[in-house]
Amino acid sequence: MRAINFFGKNNWLFAVFTFIINIIFYKALPQTVAIQWHFDGSISNTVSKTIFVFIIPLMQLFVYGYVKLKTKGKNTTLYTDLYSIFGNLFVLIVDIVIILINLKIF
Description:
Layout: H1 2-9, H2 12-24, E1 32-37, E2 43-48, H3 49-70, H4 78-102
Antiparallel strand pairs: 1-2
Helix pairs in contact: 1-4, 2-3, 2-4, 3-4
């Protein structure tokens, strides 16, 4: 319960974790990172690896700021904290999967 309260109040840490993971794998990533695929497995959208390193953590920080503004002055519930944690955890997992696919590990 203490961990839920901690990560619920400090959701920005997920963006930091995502950024650190992206920096660790930066040199191993190809120059263009595939971020979207068709159902047949062909690549439909790519970005440069520099943009990839920053875009997902920035999206997480944007969502964190939005949730903070929406709940400003209100007591957050356990549901609100869990929702934020699982949302950011999902984005972190998607980031890791994109990295693994681009490294041809997955």
